[in-house]
Design goal:
elongated; 307 residues; four-stranded antiparallel β-sheet; six-stranded mixed β-sheet; single chain; alpha/beta
Length: 307
């Protein structure tokens, strides 16, 4: 649905986007990730025609269909500014006028209020809204004219758990209607629950992109956490010596906790080797468990890598 090629943007002598390539599949939630200052907001502003690009291409829809000019985008900034003196229904009527909505306005207002859970809250003046109600009303405004693409910048930041759950439920329900959603957030658990694909931006370039399950499979390194009943010099030395086996990538021992962390690409075989070694040497484990890196682990590793 969105294809970005070699996107360039600089502010004076600072290059924010340095040849960004990005591919957002149609009808999915796309988790757009990266540290503050890496170029995410600049990318979204260019995509939504808020600011001009210096170079590169932004293609909406099928490149060969010529439909790009007809595709509508709804953009929700991190802190949407609504008219505090209006109530929610009045605000949506204003939005309908702004976008010159051609359908039944009253019917669409009721429909949108139902989608964002504001049928009752919408009767109150916006000035009295909570942060969660404000975000839901902002989503209502950007979906009013049936956009095919939604760009959401930190839609759940600073919300309490209940408000965050409400907003994420709305996002998931919108995705089920076939809407393409670019979700920019630092809350990676939300991305894992909702996104089909992700892209991780660093220094103005895309460093990891793909289906979330493929990314986890390619980059998440399985580990075995082991704690011995009696971690004496002999047993610690024996477990550490497993690093010489081709099944084992690395063995770390953390004396302050008493845990070994054994890294491997062949979890089942490595676990079998470990149990065999412990049994043959009468070494008793008090705890042993397999651990797989999460999206957050991968993200932190990538964005903090100095390479």
């Amino acid at each position: 649905m969105v294809t970005i090629r070699n996107l360039q943007k600089s502010y004076k002598n600072f290059r924010v986007l340095d040849g960004l390539n990005m591919n957002v599949p149609a009808g999915e939630v796309y988790g757009f990730l990266g540290k503050n200052g890496c170029g995410k907001t600049t990318t979204m502003n260019i995509l939504c025609n808020v600011i001009p690009k210096d170079g590169g291409d932004v293609i909406l829809g099928d490149e060969n269909s010529g439909e790009g000019s007809k595709i509508k985008i709804g953009y929700l900034p991190e802190t949407p500014s609504l008219f505090n003196y209006m109530n929610g229904y009045e605000y949506l009527r204003y939005i309908a006028a702004c976008c010159k909505y051609e359908g039944n306005i009253n019917s669409r207002i009721d429909e949108v209020m139902e989608i964002v859970g504001m049928r009752e809250g919408g009767k109150r003046t916006i000035k009295g809204y909570s942060r969660g109600m404000n975000q839901r009303m902002g989503i209502g405004a950007i979906i009013f004219d049936h956009p095919q693409i939604l760009v959401l910048d930190e839609p759940t930041s600073a919300l309490d758990p209940e408000g965050r759950a409400d907003v994420m439920n709305i996002i998931r329900s919108l995705a089920q209607t076939g809407c393409t959603i670019i979700l920019c957030t630092h809350i990676l658990s939300d991305v894992e629950k909702a996104a089909g694909s992700i892209g991780i931006l660093k220094n103005g370039k895309m460093v990891i992109e793909g289906k979330i399950n493929d990314v986890l499979m390619d980059y998440a390194k399985p580990e075995i956490e082991l704690k011995l009943f009696d971690p004496n010099e002999r047993s610690v030395s024996l477990v550490r010596s497993l690093e010489q086996d081709p099944l084992i990538e690395k063995v770390d021992f953390y004396e302050n906790t008493g845990y070994f962390v054994i890294r491997t690409n062949q979890l089942e075989n490595a676990a079998g080797l470990l149990m065999k070694t412990l049994g043959e040497n009468s070494i008793v484990p008090s705890e042993m468990k397999a651990v797989t890196e999460s999206l957050e682990d991968i993200y932190l590793k990538v964005v903090n890598d100095n390479a």
